[in-house]
Every structure is written in C-alpha cells, then in structure tokens.
C-alpha cells in the first residue's frame, strides 16, 4: 500500500520468492517439500534489507505488475457448481448483500504480523447463499485478476463466518497494493490464503492446490490452529 500512515513497504516478486524460500516461518510443511522449495529458490543477498519487522504491512506480488481496477470498473465473477451464476459489481457487493465487519490480526507466513486490522465486506457464506451452492460441491476456488495467483478452500472452511470478500479495511477502501478493490481475507489462516485482487470465485467438487501450495506449502494454512480469538464477526 502506498499510504505512508500504514508504514508499508513494497516488496517485489523476486524478493517474495526468496523470502518464502527461506523457510515459511510458522507454517508446517514436510521436510521434503520445504527442501524442494529452498532448492528451487536461489538465495538473494538483499533479503536482510527487506525482511519485514513488526508494526507494518509488507506488500507482495507474484507478478511484476498488476492491472489497476477501480470500484467503478470492478467485476467479480461467481460460477461453477451454483444455481445462479452471477457477476457482481463493486456496488452490488456493498449494497445488495449482507455486510460483515470484524477486527482480526493479519499474519504473514514469513513471520510478520499486524494486529487488530479492521475489515469490512461480505462474509463468504452469504455470497455463496446468494448464488446457491449445488449438491456435491466440496470446495471453493479463487482466482486473482493478476493472471497468476490462485487459492482454494474446502467448503467447510469457506462456510466460516470469518472468511470475507473484503471491500474495506482499516476504516477505508482496500487499496490496490493491499489487493483492492476487492480481496479475500481468511482470518484463521496465514496471509497467502487471503488472495489479493480477487477476480473470480468458482464452486467446485474438489480442492485445487493454489499458487504456493504447488510450490510446497500447506493447503490448510491454519495459524496455530486458530487466530487466538473467539468473538464472532458482525
């Protein structure tokens, strides 16, 4: 995010690859998978200058440049195993569906954490109800409009009230560098599950490993099995 008051610092694709190759602090991956990732990603000498510390966001992308979209031209396609496939505008996400607010921590797999982030948007279960999930659906797949990043959740995970199609954060809009105008936020999991620049949701019969899972990281990326909170979002 470019706003100085959020103390964020941009980190490019080359740095991200190296950082995530260092060891994925806190996430449990098999030794063989971790070694495969570490071997594939060459050490980067400048990492000691950009490794994130406490107190601020760091902004990662797996592509060099992501198209900027405004709320006015934003569209979210929802389809797959649903009764009513639909494309939502930004205004429809904010005005035609139930709204949810929550305050949760944002935990990156590389070790940094931002506490008590205010989020706003549509709880994923409410969005799924709006399109009607068909019998036999077992997973929800997410695609970024960056053209590269993907993620997925089991249907049970997607039905949690702390999984959000976020249209706002920190008391304002989701900025481009934070993955706006709309991003996914999966509160109880590491941040790589919270897909940025959300462009498409597909209800499916199975989980499909996402961008980083195909590179050795856990599909189920729980933070310590919970995010340390028991309060329900509103």
From TrEMBL:
Transmembrane segments: none annotated. Residues 67-212 form the Oxidoreductase molybdopterin-binding domain. It holds the Pfam family Oxidored_molyb. Gene3D superfamilies: Oxidoreductase, molybdopterin-binding domain. This is DMSO/TMAO reductase YedYZ molybdopterin-dependent catalytic subunit. It comes from Thermomonospora cellulosilytica.
């Amino acid at each position: 995010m470019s706003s100085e008051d959020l103390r964020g610092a941009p980190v490019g694709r080359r740095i991200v690859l190296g950082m995530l190759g260092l060891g994925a602090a806190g996430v449990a991956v098999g030794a063989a998978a971790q070694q495969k990732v570490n071997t594939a990603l060459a050490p980067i000498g400048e990492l000691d200058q950009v490794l994130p510390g406490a107190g601020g966001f760091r902004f990662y992308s797996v592509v060099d440049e992501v198209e900027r979209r405004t709320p006015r031209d934003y569209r979210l396609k929802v389809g797959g195993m649903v009764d009513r496939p639909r494309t939502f505008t930004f205004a429809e996400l904010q005005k035609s569906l139930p709204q949810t607010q929550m305050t949760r921590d944002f935990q990156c797999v590389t070790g940094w954490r931002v506490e008590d982030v205010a989020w706003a948007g549509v709880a994923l279960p409410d969005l799924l109800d709006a399109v009607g999930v068909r019998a036999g659906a077992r997973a929800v797949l997410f695609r970024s409009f960056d053209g590269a990043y993907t993620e997925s959740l089991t249907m049970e995970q997607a039905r949690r009230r702390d999984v959000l199609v976020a249209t706002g954060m920190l008391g304002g809009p989701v900025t481009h560098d934070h993955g706006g105008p709309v991003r996914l936020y999966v509160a109880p999991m590491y941040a790589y599950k919270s897909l940025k620049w959300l462009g498409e949701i597909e209800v499916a019969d199975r989980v499909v490993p996402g961008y980083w899972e195909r590179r050795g990281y856990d599909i189920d990326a729980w933070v310590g099995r919970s995010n340390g909170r028991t309060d329900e979002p509103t």
